[in-house]
Amino acid sequence: MSVVVVGSVAYDGVETPHGKVERMLGGAATYISLAASYFSKTKLVGIVGDDFDQADEQLLSSRGIEMEGLERVPGKTFFWAGVYSPDMNDRTTLVTDLNVFAGFNPKLPASYRDSPYLILGNIQPALQRSVRAQMNGVRLAGGDTMNYWIRDYRDELLETIREWDFLLINDAEARMLSDEYNLKRAAAKILEMGPRTLVIKRGEYGAILFHGASHFMVPGYLLEEVFDPTGAGDCFAGGFIGYLAEKGFDLKNGHIDARELSRAVIYGSVMGSFCCEKFGVERFRSLNRAEIDERFCEFRAFTEF
Amino acid sequence: MSVVVVGSVAYDGVETPHGKVERMLGGAATYISLAASYFSKTKLVGIVGDDFDQADEQLLSSRGIEMEGLERVPGKTFFWAGVYSPDMNDRTTLVTDLNVFAGFNPKLPASYRDSPYLILGNIQPALQRSVRAQMNGVRLAGGDTMNYWIRDYRDELLETIREWDFLLINDAEARMLSDEYNLKRAAAKILEMGPRTLVIKRGEYGAILFHGASHFMVPGYLLEEVFDPTGAGDCFAGGFIGYLAEKGFDLKNGHIDARELSRAVIYGSVMGSFCCEKFGVERFRSLNRAEIDERFCEFRAFTEF
């Protein structure tokens, strides 16, 4: 079943201890869509300028991603640049040029509105809310946010996530949103804000899924070399929603299988780990589903006892 | 089967965001022994001064810990004091008074020497080596170390761990010992130094077991309240060796069951998590084996997919 993905499509300049790329395809919607496309029909919603490269569009199309919702307007595509710390656990933003993204007001093509799955990348909560409202009978909707919206748009954000089925954020965001340092207590507070499912991403330390009174934990995949962590969190989100869509997972109509949610977290982890193996979206040029399923089995092998 | 535990027996002064205790029973050998005692006959080797409290000795005896190897000499028992950061991921040492511990030269009672299992808490590598040499036909020997020995006693340490079957250290120590930031590559280097089994403890993020070409990972137990992390790493070590001794695990004579090593890591994690629930050794006054096995099952429930 199909997934609608909404968020930024961008160019990124990235420097890690392994090298520097001045300008490459990036953006949350790009990464989410690429990861989700291995599991389900994926429909992208975003905005780019007239500098958007045909080769980049082709990469997305080559993965079968539906592009009708990608708006093209005069001007420059969103540009972000950052540099990672030597251990790659921190990064400093050097440039944020919103460009045409500043005027992003997502409108869903008619062919998108009946999709059962919706995932909202990190954009202004009011926009996320407006997208949610354009969908007809969505089966599972949720997304991501960030410290800026949590701090300065709190009410708007709370109103938005109240309607979500799942929220995917990192540990620092979970702490900020709940005002609780302890993640177990943070999760309990956040689950009262609306979403029945919360995934806390912990970077190299893995992820925790909270659903009802129980939780599921997975450690991060041990890579021998992390080339570039940019987009890993979004790839996690894409693998998560992509797998649930592939399974036709339904949180609302009683078809709740907590085990499938856990597996979605594993597929999210798998996609995030592949993302780090090369710069930007490079890994997705060659990655195939067999490799993904093989790594899923690896996760089972190194966590089972 | 029985385990010999060698290391510090101390008094600790600890301050965490949850409170402050001026003086309480502590030390690596204390925590390791307490944790191991739930699984196997445990024989302690340490040194204390004439200020060592009978009530503390009684706590150890009440857990069935053999005390013949606890040397008592005139003077004061080792005293350590520290204060934890608000998130409890860092701590600052305020006082280290070695006292009688400065003259520690462990001699194993005859009744200890045929024990099949030996675990060496963090003490000077030469002393660890001398203890290893006093054992007759030990089946499984290993232990812990710290940054100080890695940096300033490197050759002595390398000579010591070359004879070990397992090494239990934290991630910072693994990085320092191997001079590799990446843990997978760090582990590969360390496994070439002698120990066939390496456990890297990651505090709240769990642990990784490296054995041969494969590895096993477990996330840290999610506690709603961490009262005092002091001793958690040593309790991990005690649960790890205690379980292997209970099972009669034998790394040398072909009875290698990697699954049992993984389970030992889980029992280590279980014991470390209980340790954090109260100040110092307090949790061990009431803890029973049924609670331990229950938490082991919890680990399975929140990691299985």
State the share of residues found in helices of chain A, binned by percent. 25-40%
Largest interface, counted by CB within 8 Å of the partner chain's CB: A-B, 34 and 34 residues
**Strand line-up across the major sheet of chain A:** 5-4-1-8-9-10-11-12-13
What's the tally of helices of chain A?
10
Protein architecture, described:
The structure is a homodimer of 305-residue chains. Chain A is an alpha/beta fold and 305 residues long. Chain A is 35% helix and 24% strand. Chain A contains 10 helices and 13 strands. In chain A, the strands form 2 sheets. Chain A has a 9-stranded mixed sheet with strand order 5-4-1-8-9-10-11-12-13, sandwiched between helices. A 4-stranded mixed sheet of chain A has the order 3-2-6-7. In chain A, a hairpin with a 6-residue loop joins strand 6 and strand 7. The radius of gyration of chain A is 18 Å and the shape is globular. Chain A starts with a strand and ends with a helix. At the A-B interface, helix 7, strand 13, helix 9 and helix 10 of A face helix 7, strand 13, helix 9 and helix 10 of B.
Give me the secondary-structure topology.
Two copies of one chain form a homodimer.
Chain A: E1 3-6, E2 10-16, E3 19-26, H1 28-36, E4 42-48, H2 54-62, E5 66-72, E6 79-84, E7 91-97, E8 117-120, H3 125-134, E9 140-143, H4 147-152, H5 154-161, E10 166-170, H6 171-178, H7 183-191, E11 197-201, E12 207-211, E13 214-218, H8 232-247, H9 258-275, H10 289-303
Parallel strand pairs in A: 1-4, 1-8, 2-6, 4-5, 8-9, 9-10, 10-11
Antiparallel strand pairs in A: 2-3, 6-7, 11-12, 12-13
Helix pairs in contact in A: 1-8, 3-5, 6-7, 8-9, 9-10
